[in-house]
TrEMBL record:
Phylogenetic lineage: Bacteria, Bacillati, Actinomycetota, Actinomycetes, Propionibacteriales
InterPro entries the UniProt entry points to: ArsR-like_HTH, HTH_ArsR_DNA-bd_dom, WH-like_DNA-bd_sf, WH_DNA-bd_sf
UniProt keyword terms in alphabetical order: DNA-binding
Location of the HTH arsR-type domain: 1-93
UniProt-recorded name of the protein: DNA-binding transcriptional ArsR family regulator
UniProt GO MF annotations: DNA binding
Keyword Lipid biosynthesis applies: no
Organism, as annotated: Kribbella aluminosa
Length: 119
């Protein structure tokens, strides 16, 4: 029985570091499983297993080209992950804003120099 793709499936699929590495490699364009396996230092069956999971959740596409099967990134499948991460944008913006203020304060203190502290 085939599993239905859900938001949690994309999260579960990319929780595996080697699957994330596959997605990074596929950013450069479609590639056969043999190349992916070689670049990842894994066997072809291992790479195929990871590609099957990524394909089931809609993160990669596959097409036949002669005897090869070429895999390609389907970035639309990453939309739920992107939207979830985007929910933290305000947190990071505020954190970077506070960090920027702190750096500006340090710069001003350095410009004053140590002799100004004694006055």
């Amino acid at each position: 029985m085939a599993r239905a793709a859900t938001t949690s499936d994309a999260f579960n699929a990319i929780a595996e570091p080697q699957r994330r590495e596959i997605l990074v490699l596929l950013r450069g364009g479609e590639r056969p499983v043999t190349e992916l396996a070689r670049d990842l230092g894994m066997s072809q069956p291992q790479a195929s297993k990871h590609l099957r999971v990524l394909r089931e959740v809609g993160l990669v596409r596959v097409r036949g080209a002669g005897k090869q099967r070429l895999y390609d990134l389907d970035a639309h499948g990453l939309r739920p992950v992107h939207e979830w991460v985007g929910g933290f944008e305000q947190f990071w913006n505020e954190s970077f804003g506070r960090l920027d203020e702190y750096v500006q304060e340090l710069r001003q203190e350095r410009r004053k120099g140590p002799q100004d502290d004694d006055q």
